[in-house]
Design goal:
The chain folds into two domains: about 70 residues, lambda repressor-like DNA-binding domains (434 Repressor (Amino-terminal Domain), Orthogonal Bundle), CATH 1.10.260.40; about 180 residues, no CATH class. It is about 55% helix and about 0% strand.
Length: about 260
C-alpha cells in the first residue's frame, strides 16, 4: 500500500493525473473554470460538479461518488435490486459465448424499454470499517447489481481471482487488505483502468498490468448496461444467455465459489 490522494481530493488528483488544467477540464465538463480550480485546490466536490466532471475524467458518475465517499444519488442507482439474481448468471453464461453472442446480448439489454423505478436501491451495509478503499471497490460492484455471490461468480469467471462469496464482505469491511491482483481484477470487471484504480486505493502495482481479456471487457459492459433493467427484463436476458450456450450451466455453476 502507498499513500493515496485522499478520497475527498480524488477529482483533483484525477484532473492532475490526466494533465487537465482548469480551463480544459471546464470546457470538457461544461463547468465554470473557477469551480474546477476550486477542486484542484482541494475543495470537496459537490454533486453537480461530480456529475459533470465524470465524462471529462472518463469515469461513470456513480463511481466518482463512491470513490469520493459521497452518497450516490437515487437516479444513479440500479433500477431494480431484484435484478441482481439474474445478472450474475447472465455474465457467467455470456463469457462462454463467442464475442458475437456477447455483443448480441449487449444490444438486447440496450434495446429494452426503460421501465419506471418502483423501489429505492439499498445495497447491503458494509461493516465495521466501511470507509476504506476495499469498501469502495465492493460498493462499486454492488452498484452494478452484484451481491457477494455475484461478485464471487463474476470475478471467478473472467479473472484469476477465485474467492468465496463471504470474502467479498470481508474485503468490504476492511478486514482483508487489497492486493495488486485484487485491484487489477476488480478494475477489469468495473471497466476502469487498473493503474487509476490502484492509485486511488493506495495499492502499488509493481508492473504495468496487461489489458483485461475480451471476456472481462464484455462482462463489464454487460454489468453496466444491465443496471437499467427490471428484474423481469434481467430474467429474460439471463434465460436467453443460457439458451445461447446450448448446454447446461449447472455443472459449471457448482464449481464457482458464489454458487
Amino acid at each position: 500500500m502507498t499513500e493515496h490522494p485522499g478520497f475527498g481530493a480524488m477529482p483533483a488528483w484525477l484532473l492532475d493525473h490526466r494533465e487537465l488544467g482548469g480551463r480544459e477540464s471546464a470546457g470538457r465538463s461544461g463547468l465554470s473554470e473557477d469551480g474546477v480550480r476550486a477542486v484542484l485546490a482541494g475543495d470537496g466536490p459537490g454533486d453537480e460538479l461530480l456529475r459533470r466532471l465524470a465524462p471529462a475524467l472518463g469515469f461513470h458518475g456513480v463511481d466518482l461518488f463512491i470513490l469520493a465517499g459521497l452518497a450516490v444519488p437515487d437516479d444513479m442507482a440500479p433500477l431494480d435490486a431484484a435484478a441482481a439474481m439474474w445478472m450474475k448468471n447472465t455474465v457467467v453464461d455470456a463469457v462462454r459465448l463467442p464475442a458475437a453472442g456477447r455483443r448480441e446480448l449487449l444490444r438486447l439489454i440496450r434495446s429494452l424499454p426503460q421501465e419506471e423505478r418502483r423501489t429505492g436501491f439499498a445495497p447491503k451495509r458494509l461493516a465495521p470499517l466501511a470507509g476504506g478503499p476495499g469498501a469502495r471497490l465492493v460498493r462499486m460492484l454492488q452498484y452494478r447489481n452484484l451481491n457477494w455471490s455475484g461478485m464471487a461468480m463474476t470475478l471467478a469467471s473472467v479473472t484469476p481471482t477465485y474467492l468465496s462469496a463471504a470474502t467479498y464482505g470481508v474485503i468490504g469491511s476492511g478486514r482483508k487488505e487489497l492486493t495488486p491482483r485484487l485491484v487489477t481484477d476488480f478494475a477489469a470487471v468495473l471497466g476502469i483502468d487498473a493503474r487509476d484504480l490502484a492509485a486511488l486505493t493506495g495499492v502499488i502495482l509493481r508492473e504495468v498490468p496487461p489489458p483485461p481479456p475480451p471476456e472481462a471487457v464484455d462482462a463489464a459492459a454487460l454489468l453496466w448496461a444491465g443496471r437499467r433493467l427490471s428484474a423481469a427484463q434481467a430474467q429474460h436476458v439471463s434465460e436467453l444467455a443460457c439458451s445461447m450456450r446450448g448446454d447446461s450451466r449447472d455443472a459449471h455453476l457448482r464449481e464457482l465459489p458464489g454458487s
